[in-house]
Structures are given as structure tokens and as C-alpha cells.
Design brief:
alpha/beta, Arc Repressor Mutant, subunit A, Rossmann fold, 6 domains, 7-stranded parallel sheet, 27 helices, 33 strands, primosome, PriA_C, isomerase, metal-binding, hydrolase
């Protein structure tokens, strides 16, 4: 059997085949034959290189090895085995299969999300001269551009296609390549390369003859006497590597960069290498800096010890425990104690955080306790850094991982404990691309597969979690006191409408909030201001006719960003200049409407010109260490007021924060979503918890137009149970989670009528599926067009029976597949979101 490269792999009498998971959205694995040269090495979890279709080369993962040939097609041979050991284990593949089944996507999509990019192969087209082509006597006439390429190929054995851009400046490059192929002058093939590259450090060491004989070293110094730069190199080296005390240190040498950073001349180092005084060599090194461990023991307070014992007691009968601790109650110490115990038993631990960059104090605290045993895995890491953590888990270097939702895909083989901190956080939900999973629920399933325990920690539990506590499915431990008996903050409601009527509202700030900010500044204390919208203003508008600039590709108004002086769409990234005049009526009365974090920042600088103000939102934290720099500035006391979106609600712990101001609580509370009350309770409680730590009582000012809303009293009293009871009554009445299972299907197409027709047809097919259900829609989505695609939504409410869900999902998947086989709907996209959050 020939492959893409012309190799022939005859099957031996063993006739081995492998089922390969490929990163394609097709609901199956693919069977390939295993050549005799790799039959003894191949196994589950190995990466292989295979030809898929006529030209594509893909990285796949071996899911199964067997001797049954496929019936529907002749199996192609595996091109190459890429690993010396499996990089994925059987438990991971089982977990991937569950994710694909539960969240209604394909196994290949899960694999694509799971593997770091650095572990996938990339293909790039290469060109070489045809071996039968004679440049001096071509069979066909060549133009100047073709000759330029051929002459370059005569000097170079091969070239990348993209290298031709600099060599031949033509727009239709593919036509030129096609012409040369037709004239049999060149060959085009796919070169496959691994993306991951280890970090290499160039080191030097003293030649062995100068180590074994001390007189040789003296002779060396005599020989280079007067050559100051070379002497300096050797002296610096001997300072760093004391060979007389520990000669074995010379073997590992010294990084060349250390010598050059110390002022040594690079050319002098090279001269010593050339003269064989120094030896140059390369080593693979970690991309992560070594960490110093704090040896101080973890001491629990009486309340923490009681909670720790209660968690362990719950583990006797339950696999999952909710640790319901108010902000500042000291959950971290309990986590540390639990982690230590599991690591001592030889098992692995995963601690999930909604966003690592926002919880830097927690990460640094854990690093001091666990040092280099702890690996960190998050979205701001480079591909190479992610691969190093992945390989560190396989090798056993890291038995404890702290990471975001993608860390669930790491190759754990003996998990003993999974901790999900701030388990209520919406950022645990993956929206795009598939699998659209919720990390908390996926973590519980992964722990189940490993027979591990799970701790869910939060001050404001998700309703689904608390419902499982009420139904005796999860254990429950409550911590209702702040660590060290620190006092809870005082809440104040500030009526926006009342201040507006009395002309006391200035630049979006009520009198009460302005007075409290000034008081905090006078006391040299810090302030957090929360506004859950970035940008300068939600939109700009014409005062004369009401015209509002909208995105060209989406059904949304453009957000005004003053700093960049532009209008921006937060859905597709489209940007436009700020108009001087109205495009509808020509008026120059263009004004901003509403307030984002950028405008709040500006207003604060006008109200408090002496204050040092910083903003933390998506626009100011795009860089790798953007969050860290802002938090370090704030933590060092160089900032008086920090303005931010929901980023500032998560995990900040600064002693000097005495005031938290919520500019517009109504924006959260009255959002059109059945979870808006739950979200408002969670966000306001979380951001309020940043005020007043240790021995200082803080203040929280909630600005609202509806201070009579019952939820504000429940937040102020911290009465989560009463709030839960009231909300659950409404959810039960109107069939909302956790009483039903929600599935949302989004139908997308560039043509409005096609999208609408496809969604109606799908609704009809879903209605015919047996079982108890409620189907809502199809309706045009809240934002009806994004990136030039029209969106329709279908919402399904299913009974909670597992069997009923499995049956419905299978039939739903079949219905979508049937629709896509209709030529009218082949280009329609159907996105299934199970448990939309």
C-alpha cells in the first residue's frame, strides 16, 4: 500500500490495525494499518502521523489496536509513529469520549481542544526541482519568473512556498507553481514538522585537562597573561563554578549568557572555545524559574480545623463536597492541608481556578508551599510552555497542577483530589469552539473516572451545586466567619434617581459614593470601583435624530473607546473612526450614552484629581503579564483607585482596600437571563468581599435605581439560603434549571431565509422525538447577526432523567445530520450547547 510519500508497507501475517482519533468534526475514529516496523512499539495514546484524504497530513492519537480490517474502505498505512511513549492515557480517552457524548460534539473536536498546539504537527508545502528536469535543456519554454525560481532551486535543495513571495513578487503565485508542475519542472510535497521545540541553553565548561591537573590551570593563566578579557572570562567562570571545592560542578558548566551578562566579552569566550580551553555544549532547560519553598508549617485556626475535619468526614460517604465559605474565611489553608495529604499518599491533585492571572496571590502562596512540585497551566502560556507542563505531568515532575479549565485535559493517571475554587464562576463555561463544556461538571466526572474526591469551594454556590447538596448528592461544609474574626463590610444603598432629582448626581456618582471615596483617600486607603462594561460608553448617538453607529457585520451598536479614539464591535472586532457628523441627518450633535470603565476612570480623575487611578479590563490586560503588572501596582500602594469589570471580583486580597463601589447594580440585576438574579447575588457579594480584610471594617456602596428590590436586603444580610429558596420557587414554576436540563441550538447562515427555514425544519424534527420536553423557538437571537451570519436559537427543556437525555441527544444529533445532508442546508452551521450558562 502506497502512502503520500510513495512508501510501501506490506501487511505482515500479524495484520495489525489501529483506530485513530483525528482532529476533524466527524463522528468516528479512522482505522489505519500498522506497518511491521512499528508494530512492537505502537499502543493506546501514542501520536501518529497519517494521511487523511488525498493531501492532508494530520496528527492522530491511537485509541485502539486490533486485528480487524475495516469493511467499508481499504486501510491506509500509518506514515510515522511520533513518540517513544504514550502522551495520552486510556483514562483521558475515556474522559474525551464522555465529553463528546454529553456535550454533543465529536471526539476529534475534543482531541483538538485537549492537545496543546505544540503537540500537533503542522504541514507546509515545499518545492524541489524535478529529478528528471534538465535546466539547460528544458522541454518547454520558461518565462523570466519561472527561470528565477528554477535557478534558486538549483542552489537550494528545497524551498517553502511562502519563500517565493520574496523571490517572485506575483499576486497569483499558485498559477506560476501550477505552470511549473505542468511542465514537470518541479515537485510539490508536504513537509511535516513538530511545533514544539525545547528551550536550549548554550553553556561552557573548562576542558577536562585543566580539572585533573591543577598545574595545567596555572600554566594556562601564565599563557594568557596580559590578555585581560580572556583572564576576566576564566576568573568569572571560576567564581561561579568553584572547581577546587567541587570539581563535579564543572560537568554541568555555566550558561554563556551568565558570563556575557557579567561583562565578559563574547569574542573572548569564543576564542577560549576555539583554543579548546573552554568547551561549548547545549542543554535542554525548563522554561520555568525555580521556586524557593517556605518551610513554615501550615497552621489552621480553630474554625479552619473544624471545617477541614468536616470535609474529611463528608468524604467518608460522599465523593463531592461543597465548601461554602464566605469571602475571607480562609478556604486556601484548608485546600493546602487537603493537597498535602493527597500528595503524601502518592496521588495527583488538580486545583481549578476561573482565571489564574486574577488570583496571583493564591498562586504565589501555593508556590511557596509546594515549590517545583507544582505546575501552572493557563491560557497566557506559550505553546512550548504548555507542552513542558504536559510532559511534566507524564514524567511525574508535577504531581500538583493549578490551572484554568483547559488543565482538565492534562495526562493525569492517578488523581486523588480535584478542587474547583469559585465553582460558581461563569468563566468555567467554554462557549467556543466545541466541546462547549462546563469545567466544574467535567471536573466532577473526571474525578469519578479516577475514583478521586472533589471539593467545590465558593462564597456564593451555583444553584445546580446547592441543589445537589439539598438532594444529599454532595456533602456540605459551611464557614461563616472571616479568618481572624475580621469583620464583614458595611453595606449602603445609594439611590441614583433620588440624587438625580435633587441634582446631587455628578458624573454617574451619587453623593454618598463620592463622600466615601474622599474619606478613603483622606485616610490613605484604597478603593475598588466595579462597572461591568468596558469601553468609554456603550454607544454614541445623534441628539437630533437618534442615529446610532452599528457594526457592519453584527446586529449591535459600536462601543466607543476614547483612549484609542475609535468605535469597536466587541463581537467581531470591527473598528471604525468616530464620526464628526451624523451619517443620517448631518448634525454635529454627537454625544456618548452610558458609561463603561474607561469613562468611569475619566470621571473619577475629574472628581478626584489628586488620586492615582488605574483601570483593569480586557483592554488593559491583553498582554501576557497585563493582570500581574496592574495588581502589583495596586498591591504596592502606588494606586489609590482601581476601576474594573468582573475581573476585580475574583480573588483580590489587599489589606488597604476599605471601600468598594458598585456604579450600576441594575445593569447586572435586570439583564434578560433567567440567571440574572443569581449572577447579581454572586457578583455583588464577591466584589463586596474585597472590602475590609484583617482588622479593618470596609464599606460597600451599591448604586441602584431600585433600592426596594428584595435581593439587595438578602445580599446585605448574606442570607443565601433565603435567596436560594425564593429563586428556586420561580425556577420550578417556569421549568428552569436545575429542575430541567437545558440545551440551546444556534442555527447560523449568511442568508437570513436559509437560517430561518433550517431552524424551523429542525424544530419540527425535534418535536417528533419521543419523551417529555418543552421546545421554545426558533427565535431570532438577541443579537441576530454576528460576523455576517444570521442567528436563530432553539431552546429545549428536558426532563432530568439520564436515560431520557441520552435518547434525546442521540435523536437530536441524527436530526441535525439529516438536515445537513439536504443540499439546501449543507452550509448551515448548527451549534449545540448543552447546559448553556
Amino acid at each position: 500500500m502506497d502512502d503520500l510519500f510513495g512508501n510501501n508497507y506490506p501487511l505482515t501475517s500479524k495484520n495489525l490495525f489501529a483506530d485513530i482519533i483525528l482532529p476533524v468534526p466527524i463522528p468516528q475514529t479512522f482505522t489505519y494499518s500498522v506497518g511491521p516496523e512499528i508494530q512492537d512499539e505502537i499502543g493506546i495514546g501514542y501520536r501518529v502521523m497519517v494521511q487523511f484524504g488525498r493531501k492532508r497530513i494530520l496528527t492522530g492519537i491511537v485509541a485502539k489496536v486490533h486485528q480487524k480490517a475495516p469493511e467499508a474502505y481499504q486501510a491506509k498505512a500509518i506514515l510515522d509513529l511520533l513518540d517513544d511513549f504514550p502522551i495520552v492515557n486510556a483514562l483521558q480517552i475515556k474522559f474525551w469520549a464522555w465529553l463528546a457524548s454529553y456535550y454533543c460534539c465529536h471526539l476529534g473536536e475534543v482531541m483538538n481542544a485537549a492537545l496543546p498546539s505544540g503537540l500537533k504537527l503542522s504541514t507546509e508545502s515545499k518545492i524541489q526541482m524535478h529529478p528528471d528536469f534538465d535546466l539547460d535543456n528544458p522541454d518547454y519554454p520558461m518565462d523570466d519568473r519561472e527561470m528565477l525560481i528554477l535557478e534558486a532551486l538549483e542552489k537550494k535543495e528545497e524551498m517553502n512556498v511562502d519563500q517565493l513571495d520574496t523571490l517572485v513578487p506575483v499576486k497569483d503565485l499558485h498559477k506560476l507553481i501550477k505552470s511549473l508542475l505542468a511542465k514537470k519542472a518541479i515537485l510539490v510535497y508536504e513537509s511535516v514538522k513538530e511545533k514544539y521545540s525545547p528551550k536550549i541553553e548554550l553553556r561552557v565548561r573548562l576542558a577536562q585537562e585543566y580539572i585533573t591537573a591543577s598545574d595545567k590551570l596555572n600554566e594556562l593563566f601564565d599563557g594568557i597573561k596580559g590578555k585581560v578579557k580572556q583572564e576576566n572570562v576564566l576568573l568569572k567562570y571560576l567564581q561561579q563554578v568553584p572547581i577546587y571545592q567541587k570539581s563535579e560542578l564543572n560537568k554541568q558548566g555555566l550558561a554563556k549568557k551568565i558570563l556575557t551578562d557579567a561583562g565578559c566579552s563574547p569574542s573572548s569566550i569564543d576564542t577560549l572555545i576555539k583554543n579548546k580551553v573552554l568547551e561549548s555544549f547545549k542543554v535542554k532547560i525548563s522554561r520555568f524559574d525555580p521556586i524557593n519553598i517556605d518551610e513554615n508549617p501550615i497552621l489552621l485556626s480553630d474554625d479552619q480545623k473544624e471545617a477541614y475535619d468536616a470535609v474529611q468526614n463528608e468524604f467518608n460517604s460522599k465523593s463531592t463536597v461543597l465548601l461554602h465559605g464566605i469571602t475571607g474565611s480562609g478556604k486556601t489553608e484548608i485546600y493546602i492541608k487537603l493537597i498535602m495529604e493527597v500528595l503524601e499518599s502518592g496521588s495527583q491533585v488538580l486545583l481549578l481556578l476561573p482565571e489564574i492571572a486574577l488570583t496571583t496571590h493564591l498562586v504565589s502562596r501555593l508556590q511557596k508551599v509546594f515549590g517545583d512540585k507544582m505546575g501552572i497551566f493557563h491560557s497566557k502560556y506559550s505553546d512550548n510552555e504548555r507542552v513542558e507542563v504536559w510532559q511534566g505531568v507524564i514524567s511525574g515532575k508535577y504531581n500538583f497542577i493549578i490551572g484554568v479549565r483547559s488543565s482538565l485535559f492534562l495526562p493525569f493517571d492517578s488523581l486523588g483530589l480535584v478542587i474547583v475554587d469559585e465553582e460558581h464562576e461563569p468563566s468555567y463555561k467554554q462557549y467556543d469552539p466545541a466541546p462547549r463544556f462546563h469545567a466544574r461538571d467535567a471536573a466532577i466526572m473526571m474525578a469519578y473516572l479516577h475514583q478521586a474526591k472533589t471539593v467545590l469551594g465558593t462564597a456564593t454556590p451555583a444553584f445546580e451545586t446547592f441543589s445537589n447538596v439539598q438532594n444529599d448528592k454532595y456533602g456540605y461544609v459551611k464557614m461563616d466567619k472571616r479568618y481572624g474574626n475580621a469583620e464583614l463590610p458595611h453595606f449602603h444603598l445609594a439611590d441614583i434617581l433620588k440624587d438625580k432629582k435633587k441634582n446631587l448626581l455628578k458624573l454617574d456618582f451619587t453623593r454618598l459614593l463620592r463622600e466615601k471615596i474622599q474619606e478613603a483617600l483622606n485616610n490613605q486607603e484604597q478603593v475598588l470601583i466595579f462597572q461591568n462594561r468596558r469601553g468609554y460608553a456603550p454607544y454614541i448617538s445623534c441628539d437630533e435624530c437618534g442615529w446610532i453607529p452599528e457594526c457592519e457585520h453584527c446586529d449591535v451598536s459600536l462601543t466607543y473607546h476614547q483612549f484609542q479614539e475609535e468605535l469597536r464591535c466587541h463581537y467581531c472586532g470591527f473598528k471604525d473612526v468616530v464620526p464628526k457628523k451624523c451619517h443620517a441627518c448631518g448634525s454635529d450633535k454627537i454625544t456618548t450614552v452610558g458609561s463603561g470603565t474607561e469613562r468611569i476612570e475619566e470621571n473619577l480623575s475629574l472628581l478626584f484629581p489628586e488620586a492615582r487611578i488605574l483601570r483593569m479590563d480586557l483592554d488593559t490586560t491583553r498582554s501576557k503579564y497585563g493582570y500581574q503588572k496592574i495588581l502589583e501596582e495596586f498591591g504596592s500602594g502606588n494606586v489609590d483607585i482601581l476601576v474594573g469589570t468582573q475581573m476585580i471580583t475574583k480573588g483580590l486580597d489587599f489589606d488597604r482596600v476599605s471601600l468598594v463601589g458598585i456604579v450600576d447594580a441594575d445593569r447586572i440585576l435586570f439583564y434578560p437571563d433567567f440567571r440574572s438574579g443569581e449572577r447579581a447575588f454572586q457578583q455583588i457579594t464577591q466584589v463586596a468581599g474585597r472590602a475590609g480584610r484583617r482588622n479593618k471594617t470596609g464599606n460597600v456602596i451599591i448604586q441602584t435605581r431600585r433600592p426596594d428590590q428584595l435581593i439587595f436586603n438578602q445580599i446585605i444580610s448574606g442570607d443565601y439560603a433565603e435567596f436560594y429558596r425564593q429563586e428556586m420557587g420561580e425556577r420550578k414554576q417556569f421549568y428552569y434549571p436545575p429542575f430541567v436540563k437545558n440545551i440551546k441550538i444556534v442555527v447560523k447562515h449568511k442568508d437570513f431565509k436559509t437560517a430561518e427555514t433550517a431552524s424551523v425544519q429542525l424544530k419540527n424534527l425535534l418535536s417528533d422525538i419521543e419523551g417529555r420536553k418543552i421546545i421554545l423557538g426558533p427565535e431570532k437571537a438577541l443579537i441576530g447577526k454576528i460576523k455576517n451570519l444570521y442567528l436563530f436559537e432553539i431552546w429545549i427543556k428536558l426532563e432530568k432523567s439520564t436515560n431520557a437525555q441520552v435518547r434525546f441527544k442521540q435523536e437530536m444529533t441524527r436530526s441535525i445530520s439529516d438536515l445537513q445532508s439536504d443540499k439546501r442546508f449543507r452550509s448551515v452551521r448548527f451549534l449545540v450547547d448543552v447546559d448553556p450558562f
